[in-house]
Write a structure and sequence with these properties.
By secondary structure, the protein is an alpha/beta fold. Among the domains are: 176 residues, Rossmann fold, CATH 3.40.50; 98 residues, GMP Synthetase, Chain A, domain 3. The protein contains 15 helices and 26 strands. It has a nine-stranded mixed β-sheet with strand order 2-1-10-9-11-12-13-14-15, with helices on both faces. Strands 6-5-3-4-7-8-18 form a seven-stranded mixed β-sheet, with helices on both faces. Helix 1 packs across helix 3. It is globular, with a radius of gyration of 23 Å.
């Protein structure tokens, strides 16, 4: 059953202050290379940030942008915003000027707390944003002095469980990202259903994430889930390379690794993969993009740690389809998380039989309020209790779901549906292919044809023309003939969106 909190409900209390009331204030909440932070220390930092923001004129329901690297400041600022009843808007601190200006204007943020190297972009963005009032720069003397003078205790504002808590962002591959208004209740519900119900997170766990905290997947798995039970989270500000991830695993010995297919690929490709010690891990999770079966197979061979692939959306906050510890079927998304109902339906909204590909419909206690300033899209996507995703899936007789692709990415080739992920998984089995994305492009006749965008491994030893012919033949021999890529394009790297997903719109262009 979905978790239903009381009407007066603030997740700053539920995830943080309740740990102090339980007598867990001395437990380690955050682990960094510099030092550990206890729950009591994080709560004091959150209270100080809440006081500084209130003194700056930020009121309940107003938006505050966080453009911060992973670390105690991010966590203290996030809970500080929530404590005063304001709304957190998390963005990548490395955005270009035009994207920064978009988020400032679009969200009508009252204030922002940012890294020093993002301050210039935010100052320029503020000039054209009439709602914006205060820029707080992490580490600058003015903010440090204000924090030192602020009280280290603060009661949380009495928010309603249906108030907006943290805005997430959806889309961005074909246009500007749209804000998803998620409530205090949603964050608690998925924590109960997935964090505790599927991952079985306990106070003895140590989580570590490859995606950064501004990505909702990491906000849950590497902050809110561990904080809900008095566990601890490993945070590091550096860009996550495989070497950085292996180093932090060695140093902090996490029990849960939160990762994405791109990092899975980097880790299994590491020349010393067989020597790496991942014995502290009891499981790892992957989401954000489909995980090819070949990558899953290589992970199992290299590390022998359960890797739980799953699917979630900002609109339903976090994972609602997942494989289970001890019950992993590579190439699938697993079963519905308890507390969520998931169905496969046709274009008219009618349920489809097992084995057929259709639209993913999901309902549960984490459904968003809607999209900010996107009423038409809200009406299309949110239908009563249900959210209609743009994802295409199928379900088998065991209620296990398999991902077919985004509806925008599915290709109709020779009158038949083609799931790009199937061709991508096939091509990844070729020894020369390091990364690949398959998209549809119009051929000379105007019909859609598959294009494979390939990043090769070093030292392939053949010309690109020869390799392109070889890859086409590779697919023809292993899949139905119509699925082979008519065009093969070689790239140095795949383009990615602000959330690190492959930018398929750019590849189609």
């Amino acid at each position: 059953m979905p978790f239903e909190p009381p009407e007066e409900f603030n997740i700053a209390d539920w995830f943080l202050d309740d740990r102090l009331r339980e007598g867990r204030g001395d437990r380690v909440a955050l682990r960094t290379n510099e030092r550990n932070w206890t729950y009591a220390e994080v709560a004091a930092l959150a209270a100080r940030y809440g006081g500084v923001l209130a003194d700056a004129g930020v009121e309940p329901e107003q938006r505050v942008i966080l453009a911060l690297d992973d670390g105690p400041v991010f966590v203290g600022a996030l809970f500080g915003v929530l404590k005063i009843g304001a709304v957190v808007v998390m963005v990548n601190p490395r955005l270009p000027d035009d994207a920064t200006a978009y988020f400032v204007r679009y969200t009508r943020a009252k204030a922002a707390i940012v890294e020093p190297d993002a301050a210039g972009a935010f100052r320029r963005a503020a000039e054209g944003a009439p709602c914006f009032r205060r820029l707080l720069v992490s580490g600058e003397p003015e903010l440090a002095a204000a924090l030192a003078a602020a009280p280290d205790r603060r009661d949380s504002f009495a928010t309603h469980r249906d108030d907006s808590a943290i805005w997430l962002f959806s889309g961005g591959t074909t246009g500007r990202p749209k804000a998803v208004l998620q409530t205090h209740a949603s964050y608690a519900n998925t924590t109960e259903c997935y964090g505790k119900g599927v991952l079985g997170i306990s106070e003895d766990d140590v989580t570590m994430s490859v995606p950064k905290l501004y990505f909702g997947y990491a906000t849950g798995s590497n902050l809110l889930f561990p904080f809900s039970v008095g566990a601890s989270s490993v945070l590091f500000p550096e860009h996550p390379t495989a070497e950085v991830v292996f180093d932090r695993i060695d140093r902090h010995r996490p029990t849960i690794l939160v990762t994405v297919p791109k990092m899975v690929h980097m880790m299994v490709d590491d020349p010393r993969a067989a020597e790496r010690d991942l014995s502290s891990l009891r499981l790892a999770t992957t989401a954000g993009e489909a995980l090819p079966v070949e990558l899953h197979r290589r992970w199992d061979a290299a590390f022998g740690v359960d890797l739980l692939d799953g699917l979630g959306t900002a609109e339903m906050w976090h994972i609602f389809l997942s494989n289970r510890p001890g019950d992993v079927r590579p190439g699938t998304l697993g079963r519905a998380v308890p507390g969520f109902d998931v169905e496969v339906r046709d274009d008219e909204g009618n349920p489809l039989p097992d084995g057929e590909v259709g639209w993913l419909w999901v309902k549960g206690g984490s459904r968003a309020i809607g999209y900010w300033h996107r009423m038409r899209r809200t009406v299309e996507a949110f239908r009563g209790e249900w959210y209609v995703s743009g994802d295409m899936v199928s379900r088998d007789a065991d209620d296990v779901f398999t991902y077919a692709g985004r509806s925008d990415d599915m290709l109709k080739v020779s009158g038949k549906w083609l799931a790009p992920g199937e061709v991508e998984s096939c091509l990844l089995e070729h020894p020369a292919v390091a990364e690949v994305a398959v998209v549809g492009v119009a051929g000379e006749t105007g019909l859609t044809l598959p294009r494979a965008c390939v990043v090769t491994r070093d030292g392939t030893g053949v010309s690109r023309d020869t390799l392109a012919d070889e890859l086409r033949a590779w697919v023809r021999e292993r899949l139905e003939p119509y699925k082979y890529p008519r065009e093969v394009v070689f790239l140095d790297a795949l383009p990615r969106t602000h959330l690190g997903k492959v930018d398929r719109a750019a590849l189609r262009r």
